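re: ur question from yesterday

yeah so i grabbed the chain u mentioned. its 594 aa long if i counted rite. heres the sequnce exactly as i have it in my notes:
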Amino acid sequence: MNKNKTRDEIEDKYKWDLSVLYASDDCWEEDYRKVEKELSQLLEFKGTLADFRKLEQFMQTYIDFSIVKENLYVYANVRFFEDTRNATYEEMKGRIELLVSRISAETVFIKKELSSLSEEEIDKLIHGNSRLSEYRFFLDGYARYNPHILSEESETVLAELGIALGKPDDIFSAFNDNNISFEVFKHKGEEIHLSHAKYAQILESPDRELRQKAFEYYYKPFLQNIDVLANTYATTVLTNIKLTKVRNYKSMLESALFPDYLPTTVFTNLVDVVKENIDVVSDFNALKQEALGVEELHFYDNYIPLVADVDKEYSYEETIDLVRTALEPLGPEYSGKYDATVNARVIDVFESVGKRSGAFSWGSYASRGLVFLNHTGKFSDVSTFAHEFGHCLHRDYSIGNQPYIYYQNPIFLAEIASTFNEALLFDHMSKIAVSREEKKFFLYHNMKRIEATFFRQTMFASFEKEIHEMAESGKVLIAKSITDVYRKNLEAYLGNGMIIDEQLHCEWARIPHFYNAFYVYKYATSLSAAIALAERVSSGEAGAVDDYLSFLGAGSHKEPLAILKDAGVDLTGKEVYEVTVNKFRKLMEEYKSL
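ran it thru and got these structure tokens back, copy pasting raw so excuse formatting
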């Protein structure tokens, strides 16, 4: 389609119009200077935040300042992503990142002073100035951190060390993205030059010998550098543990769940339900083994489609119409916002020379949601469009219903709207399939989505928990000890019938998410919540649509579990996770019946 075109060669209607952020780079520069200048005004409030008269002035100054800072940050980054070879935007991106780092270090007093307020003191502030009542949850959110906040000097040092403490992630990324060297191998007279993308492509090849060779050669550089990668990851884990102790948390897990107001049972219930239902993974393995006609099922067999890809190319316009129809159960209000967004030119559609790979949705409070795509016409691109549109309208609903301090969706909730859209899309595609094979295609890929997001991400999360507990107990983290823990998790979660080859024992060494501790479990919880919400909407349950739209507009004005409970989902127990397992079983039964 538009592959290898330059950005100038793509029609304007397929490129986002970033005037929703800034009319020009000069306008960005003007705001950049404004933020630099107004930082001093923010600093003038130091030592005054316990005064109800000063606190109201501070809140308005802080909000206005933050809105502009966010807009600057988003604009510089998305401009850079349009063409990562563009030095102008690379420099702008670097400048705003440095400024944000400086602001974080110089405004540590905000965290220190607001977290020192007791519940009684917050009550007095609001009694003295009733207009502060709208900030109650915001202030309470800071106050709950009081036992975990250090002296201003220590907090400043930690803020200044932020970039350095994140370097293990940068080191891994430098190796994994830029410096990794895959050995060339021959297959049937052809030289195979591996890359991450090429490897993923080969895993879907019907040529099993090629898949096995690619699997073995792909892991070679990770195995050759396993000690370096182990030390890099161990540095991240040990840093996490030290910060956990310094900030007076009982464990790294508690520390990771604290920002989202979550009890550790949300995590442990997820792990328990997955372990209790590994039999469904074993059944899925048996289905794959039988369909492939292999005596043994290896991990390099796990990604080959059991049903040939739907032989259809989806234009961008067809994608818009298809997703719109799939989301019609959400009613006219959502459809209206969907159409308005499609027509607002906030979507960057096609790949072009220098454009960043992948897809995402972003935006700022001053603008509206943006969608970044690299659409090639495959069904996976249709699914991606639905996913990112979920993020986009989640942001727009929040902006429309919440003030700035409450509009950002906590990460724990952020993936729900995107996976909800995918759930409706896959169910819709299964219903409109025109042939038995096409129906099997969508059923199978829906199962794969649950396998990858619910079962596999929980395995990753279980591994993270065990590794951090090892470090907390004083055990040494080296390549062997880390690999032993990972192998144990592979054996527990991959189900019967899956041969675990030796190379896979070191899979942990190639997972970038492990450098953002206890993030991956949120994929599983989000999928579970999304499936439960989608089941309510699809079944026509009374009030389900209104509950879901209220969820989209909830932002972060109350605790995440309370927001979900208002939408009809209770994540404090095991039931929601069991809904996901039952959905998986139902899909498999339907697949087998065809």
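noticed a couple things. The longest strand covers residues 185-187. also Residues 7-164 form a domain with the Butyryl-CoA Dehydrogenase, subunit A; domain 3 fold (CATH 1.20.140.70).
anyway ttyl
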